[in-house]
Amino acid sequence: MTIPSEFLWYIPNQVEGGHRGDVSDPDPSGLQTLTTHARALEEHGWNGALIGTGWGRPDTFTVAAALTARTATFEPLIAIRPGFWRPANFASAAATLDELSGGRVRVNIVSGQDNLAAYGDSEGDQAHRYDRTKSFMRLVRRLWTETDVTFESEHFHVANSTVVPRITPRGERRHPRLYFGGASAAAERVAATEADVQLFWGEPLADVAERIERLKRLSRDLDRDLPPLEFGLRITTLVRDTTEQAWADAEAKVDEMAARQGKID
């Protein structure tokens, strides 16, 4: 069976302009600028765009809600963190926006590091973090598809919980798709059992193929009880007049980012 390809862009909702060091609009987080991006994608046949998350930038969910109100088909891939949201709060918010937008919500679950102290979150080691993410994804999916949900885990619990409004099934789509990334063994176990789409970075194709096969085997070994895991590739494009100039600028940007992060001298 051939699965249709989908294409999404990235809208960098940041107060400071620029992405990967590129020059940006003078008001990068303004509603007019963000709307211009979303409508341009809509007009040129893109499904939607990832809207990133992290403390110290405009709230991702609020930006997504504003852009769905100003577009007709644009689908926001809303990045969210389990430590920032409680599962039932998020399930309700996402279900509401999904209904208001006619089923356009997508969700990217992020388990990476953030400024946790700034919003009162705390987490343990990697195993703890991914176990919490797994519980979050499982509970959110149940709240979207069941009523009177009772759930108990180390991290979350609800009793007789029903999300209103209910999400309207649209063909085979029962709820917003859950996208997930991560290459560690702990992350792959979460993806294999809970995600709808596993996202890879722009890796060599042979490495991507190897990871896909490993995740498929892991899904079988862990008795995945969801539809088959799908896969996506996240790529940053850099366009210049010549291939040589594009490679030179790309390498310079990588060096600059590594230096800022203290990776190199």
Could you explain how this protein is built, in words?
With 265 residues, the protein is an alpha/beta fold. The chain folds into 2 domains: 8-238, Alpha-Beta Barrel (TIM Barrel); 239-265, no CATH class. 38% of the residues lie in helices and 15% in strands. The chain contains 7 helices and 9 strands, in the order E-H-E-H-E-H-E-H-E-E-E-H-E-H-E-H. The strands form 2 sheets. The chain has a 7-stranded parallel β-sheet, covered by helices on one side. A two-stranded antiparallel ribbon has the order 5-6. The longest helix is centred in the middle third of the chain and has 20 residues, at 126-145. The protein is globular. The model has no long low-confidence stretch (mean pLDDT 90).
What are the SSEs and their pairings?
Elements: E1 8-11, H1 31-43, E2 48-51, H2 60-69, E3 75-80, H3 87-100, E4 106-109, H4 126-145, E5 149-152, E6 157-161, E7 178-181, H5 185-194, E8 197-200, H6 205-221, E9 230-233, H7 243-260
Parallel strand pairs: 1-2, 2-3, 3-4, 4-7, 7-8, 8-9
Antiparallel strand pairs: 5-6
Could you state the oligomeric state of the chains shown?
single chain
Q: How large is the count of helical segments?
A: 7
Return the domain count: 2
What is the CATH superfamily label of the largest domain? Luciferase-like domain
Tell me the strand percentage band. Answer: 5-15%
Strand arrangement across the biggest beta sheet: 1-2-3-4-7-8-9
For the termini, the CA-CA separation is 49 Å
Mean pLDDT: 90
CATH architecture of the largest domain: Alpha-Beta Barrel
Q: Rg, please?
A: 19 Å
Can you summarize the main beta sheet?
Answer: 7 strands, parallel
Shape: globular
Q: Which structural class best describes the helix and strand composition?
A: alpha/beta
State the share of residues found in helices, binned by percent. 25-40%
Number of beta-strand segments: 9
The CATH first-level class of the largest domain comes to Alpha Beta
Which topology of the largest domain does CATH recognise? TIM Barrel
Query: Order of SSEs, N→C?
Result: EHEHEHEHEEEHEHEH
Unreliable stretches covering 5 or more consecutive residues: none
